[in-house]
Design brief:
Helix content is about 55%, strand content about 10%. It is mainly α and about 130 residues long.
């Protein structure tokens, strides 16, 4: 299956909340397996993203990117955003472990934590 880098990043970031929930075994297993499968792609994305940041960020006296109010300061923000969007739109071949809608319905059982809309949005790439 091909996923865009933006979907991989969204999944990895969204899984932080999911890992805190009590979920049916099959869903928890699939999430963990998919995190492992997508971690390599996410790392490659992060390396490329850091390269883009270093290219466009203003530098301090030590040659390090300038950060103000928790945000990088860019010389040419439009060019940075264009390159970042291109990076986010790259397709990556991945092998995901899928779950069914029936598996998701098991979360309605009182033994498990309920899924939020954000959780479902995170899981959508792995629902067959």
């Amino acid at each position: 299956m091909k996923l865009k880098n933006r979907d991989i990043v969204s999944f990895i970031n969204g899984c932080a909340a999911l890992k805190e929930k009590k979920l049916p075994i099959k869903i928890g297993y699939a999430i963990n397996r998919n995190i492992i499968a997508l971690t390599e792609a996410a790392e490659a994305y992060n390396v490329a993203r850091e390269k883009i940041i270093k290219e466009y960020a203003e530098k301090d006296d030590k040659g390090e990117p300038v950060i103000r109010d928790d945000y990088y300061v860019f010389k040419d923000k439009q060019a940075f955003n264009k390159d970042l969007e291109e990076l986010l739109d790259i397709d990556t071949e991945v092998n995901l472990h899928a779950i069914s809608e029936k598996d998701i319905e098991k979360c309605d059982d009182s033994r498990y934590d309920a899924l939020t809309l954000a959780d479902l949005d995170t899981l959508c790439i792995m629902i067959k």
